[in-house]
């Protein structure tokens, strides 16, 4: 049992080191987007030069336009997400088939949360680290500025917590993430 961990949501979520790393992560993501956005144009330009048919650049521009549109929609959707709190109401697994005719099924791990505003949220996936971490009745808080990061209100009985930046599993006794060295939220 861990005794040095306070019950309650941590104020370390706004720690300057965490915010600095979050900003760095967003910058890297933006650079990656620029590369992915420009790649079809550059590739089709060189193909067009080689084939002496510059119309192929239009294909690259079309692909880049789709990439841009998808990213704009993604950013708008992410910015529209709000922080919320809730209580874990259920945990269960379900079998999911890859297609109707396949005999192979995959196990999906689901955690259901009822927000304080009465909305049902689900965390689900073939790999769901929150499935083992959360228990029914746990209070949790969702932080939209991080990629699917949820903080448990009462971590006093836990042996580990997740890093909000790199999502590494850290011993709760650690003050800093073993992977990215930001403060551990506990």
Description:
The protein has 186 residues and is an alpha+beta fold. It has two domains: 11-18 and 83-171, OB fold (Dihydrolipoamide Acetyltransferase, E2P) (Beta Barrel), CATH 2.40.50; 22-80. The protein contains three helices and seven strands, in the order H-H-E-E-E-H-E-E-E-E. The strands form two sheets. The chain has a five-stranded antiparallel beta sheet, with no helix packed on it. The chain has a two-stranded antiparallel ribbon with strand order 6-7. The model has no long low-confidence stretch (mean pLDDT 90).
Structure class: alpha+beta
CATH topology heading of the largest domain:
OB fold (Dihydrolipoamide Acetyltransferase, E2P)
CATH architecture label of the largest domain: Beta Barrel
* Order of neighbouring strands in the sheet with most strands: 3-2-1-4-5
Query: Which geometry do the CA atoms define?
Result: globular
What's the number of extended β-strand segments?
A: 7
**Helix-strand topology string:** HHEEEHEEEE
What's this entry about, in short?
This protein has 2 domains: 11-18 and 83-171, Beta Barrel (OB fold (Dihydrolipoamide Acetyltransferase, E2P)); 22-80. Helix content is 35%, strand content 25%. It has helices at residues 16-51, 56-80, 129-133; strands at 84-97, 105-115, 120-125, 139-143, 149-152, 160-162, 169-171.
Keywords:
3 helices, five-stranded antiparallel β-sheet, 25% strand, alpha+beta
């Amino acid at each position: 049992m861990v005794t040095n961990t306070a019950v309650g949501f941590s104020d370390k979520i706004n720690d300057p080191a965490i915010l600095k790393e979050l900003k760095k992560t967003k910058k890297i993501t933006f650079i990656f987007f620029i590369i992915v956005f420009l790649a079809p144009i550059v590739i089709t330009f060189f193909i067009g030069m080689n084939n002496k048919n510059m119309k192929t650049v239009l294909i690259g521009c079309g692909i880049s336009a789709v990439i841009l549109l998808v990213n704009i929609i993604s950013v708008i959707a992410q910015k529209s997400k709000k922080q919320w709190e809730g209580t874990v109401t259920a945990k269960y697994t379900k079998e999911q088939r890859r297609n109707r005719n396949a005999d192979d099924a995959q196990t999906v791990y689901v955690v259901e949360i009822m927000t304080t505003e009465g909305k049902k949220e689900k965390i689900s996936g073939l790999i769901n680290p929150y499935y083992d971490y959360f228990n029914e009745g746990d209070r949790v808080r969702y932080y939209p500025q991080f990629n699917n990061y949820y903080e448990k209100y009462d971590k006093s009985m836990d042996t580990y917590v997740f890093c909000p930046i790199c999502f590494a599993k850290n011993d709760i006794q650690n003050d800093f993430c073993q992977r990215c060295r930001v403060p551990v939220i506990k």
